[in-house]
TrEMBL record:
Residues 336-393 form the PucR C-terminal helix-turn-helix domain. Residues 175-289 form the CdaR GGDEF-like domain. Belongs to the CdaR family. It comes from the Bacteria. InterPro entries: CdaR-like_regulators, CdaR_GGDEF, PucR_C-HTH_dom, PucR_C-HTH_sf. It holds the Pfam family HTH_30. This is PucR family transcriptional regulator. It comes from Saccharopolyspora rosea.
Length: 404
């Protein structure tokens, strides 16, 4: 049977309800609503625990629904108005403290009450069946109306959360460390005291829902919270710490799969979200400079791009090079600094370096091992040699300017 024919059958059944029964139904509407609320309090423990104002709002929805049922029975041509009136009369945050499952439990209790009370209102025996059929159809529409209302509320909350999340990520990128940023992040479920790392690269598509799904699905696999924002063609992801350095590297690697082709840069891990702007600043600077290293890994730590960032004019990269390369070698004595400088200038030939310094090759080997221990860079490695060479050059320039 088609929906149209079913509707015609329901209308015919309603027309067969006598005026006497309709008047009884109208007079009993208040009693029906009260009996429904009483049954809810008796049968649903969670309903009894609700504050008085929240129970009153549920009662308002119930009373409006009963009144609409009476109006529908009196005028068969009138559409069911529960969605338009009962749920509109309820507070907007109704779905926050009464879940969809609980709402359906309320509907089920109301159906039981109606099925028990309605037959008593029928003037004739045949009207009892018609009233029962009508209330079943009406409560079915209530269930659909509730589901629609909750879906709309979820969509609205999702849109609001997306805007709030974009504001948080934008604030981190711009360098905000205000309390409002932390409170917004907390509203999104982020623990403000947890570690935070920023990952930046090209957005994979122009469809935000697709991007959100790709990022969040990968974050769920590694078990880390994320905040993300799309800024033009750039995707910014802030992810929480996993508890160990290896786990953080694994998280960065998995999340980088959600980015489009091209370089992906991961900033340093910060101890809290309040300091995440430092990770973002390093990552953004590295993303601008990564073009100078065509063979950079993906993702590449921003600290591995210090030479390229310094050449691009990033003062923070210059400072880090001085602190990580020049100062440890200077503090260890001039021999190490002289040795690594001579070794690099001589093309990395150990014997030539030893001859120029008038020392045994084993002495050069020992000194180069000390350089690797102090700086984390092995002079015999091509990439590390490049970092050392640029670091030493930046250090000379900084010393000439009297910066250290």
């Amino acid at each position: 049977m088609t929906t149209e024919r079913a509707g015609e059958r329901d209308t015919d059944a309603q027309r067969q309800i006598s005026a006497t029964t309709l008047r009884r139904l109208e007079r009993a509407s208040g009693e029906l609503a009260g009996a429904s609320i009483g049954a809810m309090e008796q049968r649903l423990p969670w309903f009894r625990r609700l504050p008085a104002d929240q129970r009153a709002n549920v009662q308002l929805v119930t009373q409006t629904g009963v009144a609409n049922f009476v109006a529908w029975m009196q005028d068969p041509t009138e559409a069911i108005r529960l969605t338009a009136e009962a749920f509109r009369a309820a507070p907007r945050d109704l779905s926050r403290w009464v879940s969809l499952r609980q709402t359906l439990e309320l509907v089920r209790v109301a159906i039981d009450v109606f099925e028990q009370r309605l037959p008593e209102l029928a003037e004739a025996t045949e009207e009892r069946i018609r009233l029962t059929e009508s209330i079943l159809r009406y409560t079915r529409e209530i269930a659909f109306a509730a589901a629609t209302s909750y879906a709309a509320a979820a969509e609205a909350r999702g849109a609001w959360d997306a805007r709030l999340e974009a504001l948080v990520v934008d604030g981190i990128v711009r360098g905000d460390a205000e309390e409002s940023l932390l409170s917004r992040a907390a509203a999104l479920g982020w623990e403000p005291s947890s570690e935070a790392t920023v990952l930046v690269g090209n957005a994979p598509s122009d469809d935000p829902p697709t991007i959100v799904y790709q990022v969040r699905s990968r974050a769920a696999r590694v078990g880390c919270p994320v905040l993300l924002g799309v800024q033009g063609t750039r995707l910014v992801v802030v992810f929480g710490g996993t508890g160990d350095e290896r786990g953080d590297r694994e998280a960065a690697s998995r999340l980088s799969e959600a980015f489009d082709e091209g370089p992906v840069v991961v900033g340093p891990t910060m101890p809290s979200l309040a300091e995440a702007h430092r990770s973002a600043a390093d990552a953004m600077s590295a993303l601008r400079a990564v073009v100078a290293w065509p063979t950079a890994p993906r993702p590449v730590p921003s600290g591995d791009l210090l030479p390229e960032r310094a050449l691009a004019g990033d003062p923070e990269a210059e400072r880090q090079l001085v602190e990580r390369i020049v100062m440890p070698l200077t503090d260890a004595g001039g021999a190490l600094l002289e040795t690594v400088d001579t070794y690099l200038e001589g093309g990395g030939v150990l014997e030539n370096c030893a001859r120029q310094l008038y020392v045994h090759p084993n002495t050069v080997r020992y000194r180069l091992r000390r350089v690797a221990e102090l700086t984390g860079r092995t002079p015999s490695n091509a990439r590390d040699a490049h970092v050392l060479r640029v670091g030493l050059a930046v250090g000379r320039l900084a010393k000439a300017r009297g910066l250290w």
